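Name: D-galacturonate reductase
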Amino acid sequence: MAPIPETTITSSDGPRPIPLIGLGTATVERSDVVKTAVLEAIKVGYRHFDTAAFYGTEKPVGEAIAEALSSGLIKSRCEVFITTKLWCNSTERELVLPALKHSLRNLGLDYVDLYLVHWPLKINQKHLKVPVPKECVTAIDIKSVWEAMEECQNLGLTKSIGVSNFSTDKIQEILSFAKIPPAVNQVEMNPLWQQKQLNKFCKENHILLTAYSPLASAGNSWGNNSVIGCDVLEDIAKSREKTTAQVHPFPLLNLAVYHI
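Structure predicted for D-galacturonate reductase:
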């Protein structure tokens, strides 16, 4: 695998490199499968790994990083870029810092490179049930939550902070009071769902737009075959003797996270 190109992300240490392609770990696979997948990804050149409290994959990701360090696959923690996310049951000011500390314990790390607010809402459930009943979903006080996210960065527990699944209006609200602007907005985006308005807004405000499921998560229960089965992309791929994934128009994406 050729070296993965990088861009930069704003952080407490100034501009820091972030690989343009990451391995996402939202999956229904067993934890040992996740650990093996991350280790294999490291062997072939991946250095950016995306997890979340909600995924339940923080521990196997952390175990894989620890094993990669002990075996010499990587020489230091700073060689990998780790993202995790604040789940919706903790989107209250007093719950943010404990949630990040819990994620760090799961990962076995002193800090993450990027911490995201997973969704701009609050879920009031002791035990998650899907679909979530409407009465269990409430709005969040984004100002107080964001202030707590800023505290996490100021404490050095995360190098950068950002959001996920946020619209232009919700980001604009954060920008109106933030002392530390969001470094990233991670959203679903692919060639058939290009999020052009949001992309333009994020570029104008120096926010890195990260695409999750850039191949529409074909093969997963929550995904579909719309991108891989796209006739236009298939024709382009055949003319170049490549697969559809290989001719994926990556330039339209600032950064992409491909899930296991």
